[in-house]
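[09:14] KT: can someone run the structure on this one? pasting the chain below
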Amino acid sequence: MAGHDCPTCDDTFSTRRGLGVHHSRVRGERLPNRRCTNCGTEFYCPYDKEYCSEECHEEGVSQKGHKNPNYSGGKESTECEICGTEFEYYPSDKEGLYCPECVESKNWRHDPDLSGSDNPRWTGGKLKLECAVCGDTVERYPSNVTGEVTLCDRNCFTDWLSDAFTGEGHPNWEGGSTDNYGKGWNRVRRQALERDTHECVVCGTTSEELGRNPDVHHIVPVRLFDQTDGRTREDAHDLKNVVSLCPGCHRSAEFGNIPKRQLWEAIGVPADGRLFEP
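[09:31] RB: done, structure tokens below
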């Protein structure tokens, strides 16, 4: 039968209990029953315990260095490709190329040339086009070429708009003549320009910027008065039904992109004072 040897003397005991009693009497302490997970020291504890001390516990639960589950061997050394200084870096980072000093000074950075054909979005540069009004050569990027008409400046745009949206070219054209608006129109037109200080009530473009007076637009179109029983075209020439607009805003209003309500609000006409909506 195997015996149990005393760790402090040569006595052997048939049972571990006997060895424990002997050890307590001779050494004055209990026989060790645990082994420290951290340092391997044997110690006694009446309950399940992994570490022999607080220090071993701190070291045992630490994730520093090789105890970290992501540890891959610690830092490695290499030489800076710029200044030649040796420095350390973690393999988990990207491959070490430059020392911290060179990185901080940004000496390793090179701004790429993105001009002209070197730009990844290069599509061939500007196109040379001809202005539809004056014939001058106009340069435009392909992304800025919209529609079928190319115009060089605001003056040519105004001239083109006047020609393109007169008579049959107007989006609301339904046949008929292009005669003047009849009695009262010239008077109310002058009053509208004076009231609106010769500026577009939507974008604020002035007559000086346009090179002429703004257009005067009927909020409720004249043709709707012509088509409504009990109304005449002269009824449309009311100061509450006309606003001053630059050619661009005039076109937007004619296409319905600027609400009538917004135009009435711009000239201060309250809801109960607005003309009918045929």
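[09:33] KT: thanks! The first strand starts at residue 4 and ends at 5.
[09:34] RB: yep, looked fine to me
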